[in-house]
Amino acid sequence: MVLRRPHHTQLVNTPPNPHTEFETLPPDLHRVLDLTRPVGIIAASVLHYLPDTDHPAAVIHTLMDAVAPGSALVFSHATADGSQYDQAMQAAEVYQSTQTPITLRTRAQIEAFCDGLHLAEPGVVAQPWLHADQPIDADSAANWNYAATAVKP
User: Fold this and answer.
1) Mean pLDDT for back-to-back runs of 10 residues, the chain (153 residues)
2) pLDDT of 24
3) Nearest CA among 143, 117, 120, 115 for reference residue 131
4) How far, in Å, CA of 121 to CA of 118, rounded?
5) Is the entire prediction scored with pTM above 0.85?
6) What is the pLDDT of residue 63?
7) Which residues pair with 148 in a beta bridge?
């Protein structure tokens, strides 16, 4: 389904299908998005729902291969890095018994998703630090999510 708003267009793919390719999206999409020009893709709290067997890096590259140079992917991903490791692992364990299990990944694993893309400053960081417009008082070691912006060269 394509939702049109005055200043943006939102593609809603329900139920989530991580293997969606632009060629299989609604024909409407190509009328509202010019994929020959840079676009923005937001994958907030999505990628950790893809197990390693779904090849999340390949999913990212499928999306980014379909868009023009200069397009950006903004994403966040759950992690167990940091001082909250035990709590993050307990939360992930709860998800394992649901229809939407999660895979916690390290910063290095998440950075590897961006191979071949330009990782914009400040890189893969604790989510509150991604382009924070105010100083953050929280402890970055207490982070449960990383966030980043990757740009297609």
Assistant:
1) 52 50 57 84 90 90 90 93 84 88 93 95 86 69 86 97
2) 53
3) 120
4) 9
5) no
6) 85
7) 75
**Which pair of tokens denotes residue 85?**
């490791």
**Rounded CA separation 75/141 (Å):** 19
60-64 long-range CB contacts below 8 Å, 24 or more apart?
Answer: 60/113, 60/114, 60/117, 60/150, 61/116, 62/19, 62/21, 63/22, 64/117, 64/150, 64/152
Residue at 46: amino acid letter = V
Which DSSP string do the residues of the chain spell out, in sequence order? -EEE-SS-EEE--SS--TT--GGGS-THHHHH--TTS--EEEETT-GGGS-GGG-HHHHHHHHHHTS-TT-EEEEEEE---STTHHHHHHHHHHHHTSSS------HHHHHHTTTTSEE-TT-SEEGGGTT-SS---S-GGG-SEEEEEEE--
